[in-house]
C-alpha cells in the first residue's frame, strides 16, 4: 500500500532504492516494446545486442574501465556471490569487514565452507572506519581475497580503498569491493584504483531494479566461476538470456549520473548538512552515527536518544526512511553495523537512516526537518509523560532519556 497521508511523501530512502530516472524509464520502456534476443543472429537480435553493447559502454564510462571487463548480473547480490566464488581458494581465507552487507558476509561463509576455507572478519572504529591494524594482521595469513565495501549502506562511511588495495596487493591478495552505494553517487576511476573485482547495482542510482554488474579486471582474476550453467552468455561467465530492457535502463541511468557527479554530490551534501544541523540543533539528544566527513554526501544515520526507531518512523508517515538496512529491516534485530561500531543495543534500536539522492529538493529537506522535530517531541511525550521538553529539545524531569550534546 502506498503513502495515503495528507502530506506528500518525502522520499529519503535512496540507500534502499532510488526512484527510476526519467532517462532510464524512457530507455527501458522503449526496449520493452522491442523484440529480440541479444543472442540471435537475425536483425531483431542484432538490434538487441547493439543496445546491450551501448549500455555496457555507458556503464564502463561511469566506472572508467573497459566494457569487456563487465559482466551483467541481476544486481549486486549476485555480483558479490560471483566475485567471492571466483576468488576463493582452498586453504586460503577470505577477509571481510564486520560492517559488510549480508550479500558479502553470508556469501563469504557459504563460499568458504564450499572450498574448505575460513572467513576472517576485521573490525571498525567507533566512527565506522576500518581497523587497518586488524587488516594487516589478517593479511599476514596470506588470504586469497580481501572484500571491503566502498561505502557503508547504513552509515555512508567511505573506505580508504586506495590503502586497502595497496597493502592487500603487497600481501598477494586479490581485492573485491561491494561498491553498490558508491557507484553513480561519487566518481570512481578503475584505471587508477586497482581493484580486482567490484560489484554494483543499478537501482541505487536510478536504474530499474533487478540489474547490476560485476567488474572483473582483465588479467588479474584467474577465472570467473559461474554460479549457474546452461549457456555461453556474457562470454560464458553468466549464462541466461540477457535482460535487455533492464540493461538498457542501467546504461541510461549510468549516462545520466555521469553527467554531473561532482555537482550533484556537492548539492546533496549541502542538503544533508542542512538537515542534520537543523535536527541536531533543535533536538540536542540526537547523535550522528559514523564519520562526520568521510561518508557519502547523501547519508545521515541519526540516533534519537531513548526513542525507538519504529516509533519515530510511525510518527512521521510522510517521510520514507529506514531502520538501518532495508535488506535487514524485517529481522527485528538492532543493526549489526552499529553494534560493530560500539553502539549499545538500545542506541542501535533508536537509529534511523535518512538517505538523499538526485531528486531530493530543498523543499523536501525543509519539510523533513519539521516532520522529524515534531515526531521526536510527540514520541518523547508519549513514552516519557512525566518529563517536559523545552523549545530547544532539552528534556526536563527524571524519567526521560538521557540527553547528550550533539
From TrEMBL:
E.C. code: 2.8.1.7
Keyword match Membrane: no
Molecular functions per Gene Ontology: cysteine desulfurase activity; iron-sulfur cluster binding; metal ion binding
Protein name: cysteine desulfurase
Disordered: annotated segments: 384-406
Keyword Acetylation attributed: no
SUPFAM superfamilies: PLP-dependent transferases
Family of the protein in this entry: Belongs to the class-V pyridoxal-phosphate-dependent aminotransferase family. NifS/IscS subfamily.
The protein's enzyme class: transferase
Cofactor(s) named in the record: pyridoxal 5'-phosphate
Enzymatic reactions: (sulfur carrier)-H + L-cysteine = (sulfur carrier)-SH + L-alanine
Residue intervals of the Aminotransferase class V domain: 10-366
PROSITE patterns named in the record: AA_TRANSFER_CLASS_5
Biased composition (Polar residues): 385-397
Native species: Micromonospora marina
Pfam short name (any one): Aminotran_5
Keywords: Iron, Iron-sulfur, Metal-binding, Pyridoxal phosphate, Transferase
Amino acid at each position: 500500500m502506498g503513502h495515503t497521508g495528507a502530506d506528500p511523501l518525502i522520499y529519503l530512502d535512496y540507500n534502499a532504492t532510488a526512484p527510476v530516472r526519467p532517462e532510464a524509464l524512457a530507455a527501458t520502456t522503449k526496449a520493452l516494446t522491442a523484440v529480440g534476443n541479444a543472442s540471435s543472429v537475425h536483425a531483431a537480435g542484432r538490434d538487441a545486442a547493439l543496445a546491450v553493447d551501448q549500455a555496457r559502454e555507458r556503464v564502463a564510462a561511469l566506472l572508467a574501465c573497459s566494457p569487456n571487463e563487465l559482466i551483467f548480473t541481476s544486481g549486486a547480490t549476485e555480483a558479490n556471490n560471483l566475485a567471492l566464488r571466483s576468488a576463493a581458494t582452498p586453504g586460503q581465507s577470505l577477509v571481510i569487514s564486520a560492517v559488510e552487507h549480508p550479500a558479502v558476509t553470508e556469501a563469504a561463509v557459504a563460499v568458504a565452507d564450499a572450498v574448505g576455507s575460513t572467513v576472517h572478519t576485521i573490525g571498525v572504529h567507533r566512527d565506522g572506519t576500518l581497523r587497518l591494524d586488524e587488516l594487516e594482521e589478517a593479511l599476514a595469513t596470506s588470504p586469497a581475497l580481501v572484500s571491503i565495501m566502498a561505502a557503508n549502506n547504513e552509515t555512508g562511511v567511505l573506505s580508504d580503498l586506495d590503502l586497502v588495495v595497496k597493502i592487500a596487493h603487497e600481501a598477494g591478495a586479490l581485492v573485491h569491493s561491494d561498491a553498490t552505494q558508491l557507484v553513480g553517487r561519487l566518481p570512481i576511476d578503475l584505471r587508477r584504483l586497482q581493484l580486482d573485482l567490484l560489484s554494483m547495482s543499478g537501482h541505487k542510482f536510478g536504474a530499474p531494479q533487478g540489474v547490476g554488474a560485476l567488474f572483473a579486471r582483465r588479467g588479474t582474476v584467474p577465472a570467473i566461476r559461474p554460479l549457474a550453467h546452461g549457456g555461453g552468455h556474457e562470454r560464458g561467465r553468466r549464462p541466461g538470456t540477457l535482460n535487455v530492457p533492464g540493461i538498457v535502463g542501467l546504461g541510461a541511468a549510468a549516462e545520466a549520473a555521469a553527467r554531473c557527479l561532482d555537482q550533484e554530490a556537492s548539492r546533496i551534501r549541502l542538503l544533508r548538512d542542512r538537515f542534520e544541523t537543523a535536527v541536531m540543533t533543535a533536538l540536542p539528544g540526537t547523535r550522528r552515527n559514523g564519520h562526520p566527513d568521510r561518508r557519502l554526501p547523501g547519508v545521515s544515520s541519526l540516533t534519537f536518544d531513548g526513542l525507538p526507531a519504529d516509533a519515530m518512523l510511525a510518527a512521521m508517515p510522510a517521510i520514507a526512511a529506514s531502520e538501518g538496512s532495508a535488506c535487514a529491516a524485517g529481522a527485528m534485530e538492532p543493526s549489526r553495523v552499529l553494534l560493530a561500531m560500539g553502539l549499545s543495543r538500545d542506541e542501535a534500536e533508536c537509529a534511523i537512516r535518512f538517505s538523499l539522492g538526485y531528486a531530493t529538493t530543498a523543499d523536501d529537506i525543509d519539510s523533513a526537518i519539521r516532520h522529524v522535530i515534531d515526531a521526536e517531541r510527540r514520541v518523547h511525550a508519549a513514552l516519557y509523560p512525566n518529563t517536559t521538553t523545552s523549545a530547544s529539545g532539552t528534556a526536563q524531569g527524571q524519567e526521560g532519556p538521557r540527553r547528550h550534546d550533539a
